[in-house]
TrEMBL record:
Residues 1-18 form the signal peptide. InterPro entries: GLPGLI. This is GLPGLI family protein. Keywords: Signal.
């Protein structure tokens, strides 16, 4: 109880005057373990308020926001909708939310037309070392943990007394400024800190399906085994599949394309 009260008082001090915080990270990752030279980059936001945090791709969120504006303009003009898939930017389609002070963790992700809210029940157990490192303007201390099939190194700073970090990670006595797994195929580095008026509420919609990790794993496996199921259902409803250049496309071509993408996305942040 004493720890909880102390944490609450610290959080109230940080968020005095209703100033929410945005921590912007550079996320570098290798999606295909057979092609380690193909390093991807994504701009990720960790938006923190007194009640919790939301971690999501700024690249995806900004792209989707621009697409939404385009759709509204086209509808207002009464013209035909022109939704080009190549206008979408960003590779990290999921988001992670945490609820304070218990740090309940949830992964939000879309599979086909459905949005899922997946509860995370695995604890994160840290080993804090004596090693220090200056990362940017922050003096940090190193910690280690094993999570979801990877060994992780984290550098946290007590100068920012928020027990949060990128993705699902939390529980250190300060914000995680840098994180990377042992293979160095996933790395998060803090690049900027700013005050924000509010956390975006429409990163994911309200119509989410709540599932546990086991249920979500089965849903994901079913999708990977039959990724064209959504196209098949749409075609049964009379929809016509087209490619980016406007040419018609059949289900087999769509399925082959998606399976090839899944095959190359074999180095996910969670291995088990």
């Amino acid at each position: 109880m004493k720890i909880l009260i102390t944490f609450t008082l610290v959080m109230l001090g940080i968020f005095a005057n209703a100033q929410n915080k945005r921590f912007t990270y550079e996320y570098q990752f290798v999606p295909d373990s057979t092609n380690v030279s193909d390093l991807k980059n994504e701009v990720m936001n960790l938006d923190v308020s007194e009640s919790g945090s939301k971690f999501y791709s700024y690249t995806v969120y900004n792209s989707d926001s621009l697409m939404k504006i385009d759709v509204e303009k086209q509808m207002a003009a009464g013209g035909m909708l022109n939704l080009k898939s190549n206008n979408r930017r960003g590779l990290v389609r999921y988001a992670v939310t945490k609820k304070y002070p218990k740090y309940e963790v949830f992964l939000q992700n879309r599979i086909l037309r459905d949005q899922y809210n997946v509860s995370e029940e695995r604890p994160i157990v840290w080993k804090i070392t004596s090693e220090k490192l200056k990362v940017g303007e922050w003096m940090t201390q190193k910690a280690e943990t094993d999570f979801a099939g990877r060994h992780w190194y984290a550098w946290f700073t007590t100068d920012i007394p928020i027990q949060d970090g990128p993705y699902k990670f939390h529980g250190l006595p300060g914000l995680m400024v840098k994180m990377e797994d042992q293979t160095q195929s996933h790395r998060f580095t803090l690049k900027a800190v700013k005050n924000i008026s509010s956390i975006p509420k429409d990163v994911f919609g309200a119509n989410e399906i709540s599932v546990n990790a086991k249920q979500y794993s089965k849903i994901l496996k079913d999708y990977e085994n039959d990724p064209a199921r959504g196209f098949k259902q749409a075609q049964m409803g009379g929809a016509i599949m087209v490619t980016k250049d406007g040419q018609s496309s059949n289900i087999k071509d769509q399925e082959a394309s998606i399976k090839e993408k899944i095959k190359k996305d074999n180095n996910k942040i969670e291995l088990d």
